[in-house]
Amino acid sequence: MILELTPNITAAEKSALVVALQEQRCDFRELPDTDVQRIGIMNRAIREPDFFNRLPGVARTVPVRTPYKLVSRQMHPQDTLVRVGNVLVGGDRITVIAGPCAIESREQALTIAHLVKKAGAILFRGGAFKPRTSPYSFQGLEEEGLKILAEVRETYGMCVVTEMTAPSQAEIMQKYVDVVQIGARNMQNFELLKVVGRMGKPVLLKRGLSGTIEEWLMSAEYILSEGNPHVMLCERGIRTFEPYTRNTLDLTAIPVLRNLTHLPIIIDPSHATGIREKVSPMARAAIAAGADGLMIEVHHEPDKALSDGPQSLYPLQFGQLMRDLYVIAPVVGKQLDFGYLDKARAVALRSRGANDSRQKAAFMGRVGTFSHKACLQYFGGEVEALPVASFRAVFAAVKSDTADFGVIPLENSLSGSIHENYDILNDYDLSIIGEIKLRIMHHLMTNPGVDIGDIRRVLSHPQVFGQCRHFLEQHDWELVSVSDTAAAAQRVADGRNTGDAAIASQVAAEEYGLKLIAENIETNPRNYTRFVIIGKSPLYTGPIDKTSLICSTRNEPGALYETLKIFAENRINLIKLESRPIQGEPWRYMFYMDIEADLGADALKPVRKKLEQKTDYLKILGTYGEVPEAPPGEGAESLQV
Fold it and tell me: Which residues of 128-140 are buried (b: 16+ CB within 10 A; e: fewer)?
């Protein structure tokens, strides 16, 4: 049962309410606020709901019909983000956990950790204690394996995940690991669940071989009931009658869990399929279905692995899978961030250097716009998002150190470049230090209790109406233009007019308490906006594979050709070329270019020198990049299958 408290409840009334609940022997907790304060009663109350409705400070009671309480979305409507070191599991950034099934040696673990981190994994997995069907199989290196995992964390900056098989291991797990995994065989080992609940470390809870979703969530409830809210659910396949794979991967669990619980969802296609060539297709399908992350087994010599070699990907295969996921993720509104660890570490170091104050990233508009969403996807919760009134104000905030970074849209896949921002880039001595491509998904939203038949007016930015033309033509609604999509959502939420709806992002719906009536109503789903991150100094320290620059050429035949020929002669791919008028010089133009190369590298100094010789004006706007090459790996020759 949930008690919703009155908006004007006093501290004295709340204290009296707590005393009354204690007298009734209620097991209760304060719940995260929605639009009201709430208290959840966990156990079966002795009194009927009418008794609680009469208590001072209680507005109404809401029944909770599921046997699990703390893990239910009813008690906790917002998605939970589980922090593991600098990583947040859940939200819009995909978490990839990778490593061998078992830690076999120091050399093996460090080799694989190097390869999976290079490909973009952000957490490292490896078993030190291995529960096996046969007592004669390799059982793990135990504490020695945990020490190796700790060395992986220190060497590569990746937090580590390993399985705990008995309550007696709690002390050494606290000492060495970051995430405690509860394996499928122990999903209903309730004493073990109670112990990890009291440990307080993040927990990866795998679904049992024959466990139903409700039984799985009840196991999670054991952990949360002991005071540990940092739980991730891991689907790893269930046992069915089908013999062609090791288990049957239940991807239908993803949308089911989305409705039932607020906990992050991780998919383990390695144990689910048990067959190497089936792991990548199922991993891609899991992200398309909406999973928050993946756990993938990788081994540089799987034929020599002491555990589960046939289902382990070669590093080369893992690298290719990560590049596939990088492309798939934006389609479902998520991001695979290859620079996640480097950015989080850099932000943390900057913050510590500034008396622990949070770094800020400025964006144009208000909370809930797509610029705000791009800011959240690029930085996660590591920085404070700072709304400002205009694009030029974003640059000014970074220049004046009011903000550490700026988030600026540069071009849309349908409507083209945002020329104003290209011009402002030339005006400020700031650099592009990163980029993110965001799929623009428009949703129709209203206040709770309003149905599509009640709508009379729709509010949004005028450009959005054009992008959703096919959907809107099916309805006889008045279209009202506002400054941005978040403003539309805010006006609908504030107005409480049952005839009003807004078209905006899901972030805006969550921010202003609106419900989605129709999702993804844009006419063309290939609607992406490229945002760049501006700053005074680099943030991402990974491979640099892109340069943005501007230049002007002499007013003579072949001048532009001679400039572009420099790229062709050096095998540098030009991926964007656009002209803009030079302010104050009629009929003269500046050229904006993006190339696939690090023009700031020492090896390309001759190229820069030639460009300077062939142009009247040259400015490098930034060098950046986040998509690594697939890592080489031993056993690549075995991929010819």
Answer: bbbeeeeeeeebb
Q: Among all residues, which ones are annotated catalytic?
A: 529, 531
Neighbouring CB atoms inside 10 A of 262's CB total 21
What is the CATH class of 2-62?
alpha beta
The gap from C-alpha 609 to its chain's centroid, in whole angstroms, comes to: 41
User: What CA–CA distance (Å, rounded) separates 63 from 48?
Assistant: 11
Q: Choose the weakest-confidence range: 395-404, 469-478, 580-589.
A: 580-589
Sign of the dihedral through C-alpha 251, 255, 259, 263: positive
Angle, alpha carbons 194-199-155 (nearest 5°): 135
Helix (H) or strand (E) run with residue 191 in it:
helix 190-199
Widest CA span of the chain, in angstroms?
91
Q: Is the dihedral of CA 201, 207, 208, 211 positive or negative?
A: positive
Please state the φ and ψ torsions of residue 239, each to the nearest 5 degrees: -80, 125
Cα 213 to the center of its chain, rounded Å: 24
Strands (DSSP E) found in 80-215? 82-84, 87-89, 95-99, 123-125, 159-163, 179-182, 203-206
DSSP state of 160: E
Mean pLDDT score of the chain, rounded to an integer? 91
Residues 6+ apart with CB under 8 A from 142: 128, 129
Taking each helix axis as running N to C, give the angle between helix 106-119 and helix 315-328, from 0 to 180 degrees, rounded to the nearest 10. 30
Scored b (16 or more CB within 10 A) or e, 469-481 reads eebbeeeeeeeee
Per-residue pLDDT of 394-424, as tens digits, reads: 999 999 999 999 999 999 988 888 889 999 9
> What mean pLDDT do residues 579-588 have?
83
CATH of 543-634, one of 3.40.50.920, 3.30.70.260, 3.30.465.10, 2.60.120.10: 3.30.70.260
Query: Running DSSP on this structure, what letter comes out for residue 283?
Result: H
Helix axis angle, 419-427 relative to 391-399, nearest 10°?
20
| pLDDT given for residue 352 in this prediction | 53
**DSSP string spanning 342-370?**
HHHHHHHHHHHHTTTPPPEEEEES-TTSH
**What DSSP designation does 12 have?**
H
Residue that has been written with the tokens 């798939």 in this structure: 328
- Which residues are bridge partners to 256 per DSSP? none
Please tell me what DSSP assigns to residue 313: B
For the whole model, what pTM was predicted?
0.86
Cβ burial, residue 528 (10 Å; 0-12/13-18/19+)? middle
Q: How many residues does the structure list for the chain?
A: 641
Tokens 């009671």 found at: 61
Task: Look up the CATH superfamily of 82-130+138-332.
Answer: Aldolase class I (3.20.20.70)
CB 445 within 8 A of CB 509: yes
